[in-house]
Every structure is written in structure tokens, then in C-alpha cells.
Amino acid sequence: MERYDNVLKSTSHTAAGVALYIGALWSGSFLFTVYGIPLAGDLLGLFSLLAMYNTVRNYRAMVEDISFLKCWKLTSTISLYGVLVTGLVQYVYFQYLDNGRLLGSLVSMLEVPEFRESLRQVMPGITPDELTGLLESVTVGSMTAQLFLMNLCLSMLAALPLAVLGKLGKVRPRRKDAGDE
After folding, report:
1. What SS3 state is found at 37?
2. Residue 22, class by beta-carbon neighbours within 10 Å (0-12 exposed, 13-18 middle, 19+ buried)?
3. Within a 10 A sphere around the Cβ of 69, how many other Cβ atoms?
4. Pick from 142, 166, 138, 175: which is nearest to 74 by CA?
């Protein structure tokens, strides 16, 4: 176990390493969804939750049997770092790759009569022209900030049940391999 103690010193160290993979999965999920492949995006999102759960279980088995609060700290820290990575990818996407494509498709949806009617029912005080003006005034920074906050809220909500599931049950300590001694 000495090798694992040196490699996995703290939950923050473990979370930082895993968060790059989680952030890459969430970024891939975002890109698949934006480019019209939502099933692949959903699968990457679900796989990322499974990866976080697996990280907590492996951490418990390799390093120590940790308390619920430490499990929650681990999942929350992974989520925070993952959101930072995802936010960076989203900013780069909107700044350099999107060229207004996403907002343009939202504005073009406002011209569909069925969407206009449902918009009138949902938001009776706002006209489609006002909403078009609002969408055209959105900047890359404000869109990225909104997505960052949404990602942060959703990931922190997911961190709590993942910590509960990661803490449940007994884990068997990992055996030392011949090369670990």
C-alpha cells in the first residue's frame, strides 16, 4: 500500500487527475450534442458518471476507507475541475469554431409558426422580435458563463448521489502485486 499512498496522497490530487478525463467526456458530450448526435452525447455523460463512481470505489479500495464527507469532497472536486475543463472547451468552441451557428439556429427557430405559437403561450409578454434581439445580443463570454453555471449546478447535484453510492457497501482492499513491493 505504500506505493498507493505516495501516488494518491489526497483526494484533491486524485480528483485533479480524474477530472481531466471527466472534463474530456463532458466536452465530447457537449460537442456531440451541438453537432446533432445527442445519443452519443448522452452516453458520454452517463459514462462520465460511472467513471466518477468507479474512482470513488477505487480510491476507497486502494488508499483508505473514507467517510461520506470525503467521498463527497472527492466527487465535488472532480466535478469542479471537470466543469473548468468543459468551460474552457466551450469557450474555445464558441469563440473560434461556432461562428454564430448555434445562435443562428435558435433565431431561425423563432420563424417557425408552431414555435412562435408555443412561445406566445409560454411567454405571453415577449414577442418573437424581442427574443430575436435578445439572442442577437448574446456574447461568447455571457454564453460560456451561463453554460459554466449550468454545468456547475448539474455536476454538483450529481456529486451528492455519486458520493452516497460510492460510500455504500464494503470494498475489499486491493492486493499488492509482485511489482509493488
Report:
1. coil
2. buried
3. 10
4. 166
Q: Identity (one letter) of the amino acid at 130?
A: E
pTM of the model: 0.79
Give the N- to C-terminal CA distance of the chain in Å, as an integer. 9
Alpha-helical runs (H) found in 2-127: 2-7, 11-34, 38-62, 68-92, 101-109, 113-122
- With contact defined as beta carbons under 8 Å apart, do 181 and 1 qualify? no
Q: Residue 56: which residues within 8 A CB-CB, separation 6 or more?
A: 71, 74, 75, 162, 163, 165, 166, 167
Q: Give the rounded distance of the alpha carbon of 68 from its chain centre.
A: 22
User: How do residues 105-120 score in pLDDT, each as one tens digit?
Assistant: 877 887 888 887 887 7
Q: Which three cell numbers stand for residue 96?
A: 473560434
